[in-house]
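[scheduler] slot 2 assigned
[scheduler] job type: sequence-to-structure, two independent chains
[scheduler] chain ordering preserved from manifest
[runner] begin chain α
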Amino acid sequence: MISDIDLIDVKSLNKVINETYSVDFSDYATTSFKRRVEKAGNSLHIPTFEVLLEKIKTDTNFYERFVSNLVVDTTEFFRDPSFWRKLREEVIVKFRANNTIRIWVAGCSSGEELLSLAILLKEEGLYDKSKILATEINEFALMKIKSAVYDAKSLETAESNYERYEGKHKFSDYYTEINGEITMKLDLLTNVNFQAKHLDDSNIPGKYDLILCRNVLIYFNPALQDRVIGNFSNSLFPSGYLAIGVKESISNSRKGNEFVVVSQEENIYKKK
């Protein structure tokens, strides 16, 4: 089991990944990154840090699975129901007159928030004119989201969150359950364009009415947070909205003054 890796190990890992795959994790918050490396390595049954380095150097498929485990966070359908109510009532309602609604789900993790957004848009009658970009750092993570298959153990939490969100139907209307797994209805992903992108990639196509990026920035150091917030600001239409996690902040970003607060409690902002 991999445990207690130190700063030298982290630097060695970042160097190998950067040299082999041209991906830079050096601006991830060190303590959090160390914890995630240990968790990802152990979930893939890697016995030592040295074995991990060698497999990353020599096995592209392993690297894809490792990075997917590294960056994908545990989340829930309609996590923080009060956020989703506020998003529906204070933001999504403003898009009713739009011919097209452009949304970027940045860092879509394992897909539950992307699917929650799709359900919200369907219930508000706005999904058909929505175009959604969903990004995660690698294709392996995106493939898992595209399958829309989840452990049925998550159902109790999902259904409770949906009820507290005050959805218009039943959560069970959106999935089928077979052999301990649930498969979400694939029409929820019809208008989603999946792309493997890092959040500070300046080559994001188009402009957006809403960027949803919750509970991702906390894993970055201040320099990377600043670059990402700058990228979000550049990617939003004037008067576009940005939603981040409740433990995150844009106040220290150089671009932070380009936003006004829509909801302090739910960390929703509007570009000036």
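[runner] end chain α
[runner] begin chain β
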Amino acid sequence: MRKLFTLSFVTLAIAACSDSGSVTEPTTSLVSATAADSRDHEWNDMGGDEDDDRDPRVKTYRVTITNLTTGQPMSPAVLVTHNRRASLFGAGERASAGIRAIAEDGDPSVAAAALNGARGVYSVVTTTAPVGIKGGTAFPNSLSVEITARGNAKLLSLSTMLICTNDGFGGLDAVRLPRGRRAQVYYAAGYDAGTEKNTEVASSIVPPCFGIGPVQGPMGGGDRTPEMGRIRHHRGIKGIADLTAAHDWKGPVAKVVVQRID
């Protein structure tokens, strides 16, 4: 799977690198989206306009993801609105096949396929473009997408690969969608999927890292050393091989602004 992903992603990265301009304003990406009705789960609502689980209105939200790092470009992402019966990931859990595909290959399609039609899921969206590093020029530093929800699907989760890692990803785990029109701001942490050892060797890092990341270098490759760990907060880049301090980060990896627009 890694080879198929990296070939298409490298092509995208090379094309983007031909643009010397730096774009830092939120940019709307093309998205693919599907929706499935969700059921069940009582929700303890806080503030906002009148609403309850029986509300038939479909609400639309704009989600803007801004990369806060200077060393970790982010892959296309998967976003999902859901209730408490559904989950994209959770710290301390084993990574699903979908999270592994994102964290190792930057491929959101596996997670999207598993979520579409799943119990408790309302809408699934995948983006088609990376989010560039802070101060970088290869890709915009932010992108905005729209996603819908209805009834008791009042949670939002998302995941995107931290490209210059073995199996790192940025994510939000079941945060509340805003009830009113006021924007809600969240900060996505960096996670380690626990599926691949953090060797930091170029041959085990997806090629786009060295094409669009902060440091130019070897093309990368499809080597990987599996491990059977659990999802945990990522400890950052150690600089033990081909990745360097330039790829490291401190604190949250992304700012996520969610606002109801309809």
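[runner] end chain β
[qc] chain β: The radius of gyration is 18 Å.
[scheduler] slot 2 released
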